[in-house]
UniProtKB/TrEMBL annotation:
It holds the Pfam family RB_B. It comes from the Eukaryota. Residues 1-110 form the Retinoblastoma-associated protein A-box domain. This is Retinoblastoma-associated protein. GO terms for molecular function: RNA polymerase II transcription regulatory region sequence-specific DNA binding. Transmembrane segments: none annotated. GO terms for biological process: cell morphogenesis involved in neuron differentiation; negative regulation of G1/S transition of mitotic cell cycle; neuron projection development; regulation of transcription by RNA polymerase II. The lineage of its organism: Eukaryota, Metazoa, Cnidaria, Anthozoa, Hexacorallia. The gene is RB1_2. One of its GO terms (cellular component) is chromatin. It comes from Desmophyllum pertusum.
Length: 266
């Protein structure tokens, strides 16, 4: 903990950590990181209990957990490469979906910092002052989204120009329409951006082909495209038609290469 506090003191030019040290979420997050490391290193006595079960057991919010993980990784000297990889994989789960659930402090922070759905409307100085953890979180979400888009586009053999449009569309969905992420998964935005842009530029890739390629990626998750049984809107096509297109239509149309509008997916 001392190394973490010294690093924060240098980064923030602040030596008063009374609020942090009095924060229950901070200490519980440290405990969660420590338990995850021990179980990953020694083997869990309950093999079926994997992350994020520890968040439920400790009643810890994923976004609060995220605030500690990076410092823990950087300043815990005994972590080996396998344990760092384990914590990074856990962090990805937080970035892609766990922190976006109803009741998450992330959503509260987003509403407070970006009430107009556009972080660009707030100066960089204000953003830094308001919430450094939030800025770090959003930057990491963008990095993860870009990496996953690149992986999927490589599988689909998408050319550089079109994948550039896909990235712009994906980035705008996360920045201008971040409410789409509530109780959803980053990869849903990814699949929808790929389909929508391929369609409007006249190089349509069927959803079936996109999903098939997605399934072959190491980060693929079945519930991203299947949804809940019997709930059409929860499937990737239902989400695209009934939710995504409603919010993203104007953003997508800017890439249209011919007269008309992007049709709904069949």
């Amino acid at each position: 903990m001392e190394a973490m506090l010294l690093a924060e003191e240098k980064r923030l030019s602040c030596s008063d950590f009374s609020a942090l040290l009095n924060s229950e979420a901070f200490h519980v997050s440290l405990l969660a990181c420590s338990l995850e490391v021990v179980m990953a290193d020694k083997g869990s006595p309950w093999p079926t209990l994997t992350f994020p079960w520890i968040l439920s057991i400790l009643k810890l919010k994923a976004f609060d957990f995220f605030k500690v993980t990076e410092s823990f990784i950087l300043h815990e000297p005994l972590l080996g490469s396998n344990l760092i990889k384990h914590l990074n994989q856990i962090e990805e789960q937080v970035l892609e979906s766990l922190a976006w659930t109803t009741g998450s402090p992330l959503l509260t922070a987003m509403e407070a910092s970006y009430p107009h759905s556009d972080p660009a409307s707030i100066s960089s100085g204000q953003q830094q002052k308001k919430s450094q953890p939030l800025n770090l979180f959003l930057r990491k979400v963008n990095q993860l989204a870009y990496h996953r888009l690149t992986s999927l586009c490589n599988k689909l053999d998408v050319d550089e120009v079109v994948r550039g449009h896909m990235w712009t569309c994906l980035e705008q969905s996360l920045r201008l329409h971040w409410q789409l992420m509530k109780d959803r998964h980053l990869d849903q935005m990814l699949l929808c951006a790929v389909y929508a842009i391929s369609k409007v530029v006249g190089k349509e890739i069927q959803f079936k082909q996109i999903v098939t390629s997605y399934k072959g990626l190491p980060f693929a998750s079945a519930h991203v495209y299947r949804g809940a049984p019997g709930k059409e809107q929860d499937s990737i096509i239902g989400f695209y038609n009934k939710v995504y297109m409603v919010a993203m239509k104007s953003s997508i149309l800017q890439f249209c290469t011919k007269q008309g509008e992007p049709a709904h997916s069949e």
